[in-house]
């Protein structure tokens, strides 16, 4: 059973992953907001830890805490967004593109040409 393009019957089909890309991007942005808040509390925690080592420790601790908080928030948001986008891809959007004629259409998941990185 090979899926083919409904317009030109080519079997050169690729998953579009449009929602996945959009989801990952918006996820990183909203995750970045969460990350910014994480950075704030991370900075405070870092400063408290660094305070033991004096003024230099405070700035290093603040920086490390902020970086860590932002990183964790951004990554978590990106992953969640990509998952959401993947749902969109498989259930709502045209998820397949024909490489021969450029036609885009939807295929049920069972007939999907292999979906990478799942
Ligand atoms: Zn086609």
Structural account:
- The protein has 2 helices and 3 strands; from the N terminus they run E-H-H-E-E.
- The chain is 59% helix and 7% strand.
- It has a domain at 15-94.
- A 3-stranded antiparallel sheet has the order 1-2-3, with no helix packed on it.
- The radius of gyration is 22 Å and the shape is rod-shaped.
- The two termini are 21 Å apart.
- It has 118 residues and is mainly alpha-helical.
- The structure holds zinc ion.
- Residues 5, 7-8, 10, 98, 100-101, 103 line the site of zinc ion (ZN).
SSE topology:
Elements: E1 13-15, H1 18-50, H2 55-91, E2 96-98, E3 104-105
Antiparallel strand pairs: 1-2, 2-3
Helix pairs in contact: 1-2
The structure holds zinc ion.
The gist of it:
The chain is about 60% helix and about 5% strand. It is mainly alpha-helical. It has a 3-stranded antiparallel beta sheet, with no helix packed on it.
Bound molecules: zinc ion
Radius of gyration: 22 Å
The general outline is: rod-shaped
- The overall pLDDT, averaged over residues, is 78
Notable features of this structure?
single chain; mainly alpha; 7% strand; rod-shaped; binds zinc ion; Glycine zipper domain-containing protein
């Amino acid at each position: 059973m090979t899926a083919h393009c409904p317009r030109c019957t080519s079997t050169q089909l690729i998953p579009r992953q449009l929602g996945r890309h959009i989801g990952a991007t918006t996820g990183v942005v909203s995750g970045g907001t969460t990350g910014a808040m994480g950075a704030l509390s991370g900075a405070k925690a870092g400063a408290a830890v660094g305070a033991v080592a004096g003024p230099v420790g405070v700035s290093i601790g603040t920086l490390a805490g902020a970086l860590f908080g932002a990183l964790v928030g951004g990554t978590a948001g990106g992953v969640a967004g990509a998952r959401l986008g993947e749902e969109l891809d498989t259930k709502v959007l045209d998820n397949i593109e024909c490489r021969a004629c450029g036609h885009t259409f939807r295929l049920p998941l069972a007939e999907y040409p292999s979906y990478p990185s799942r």
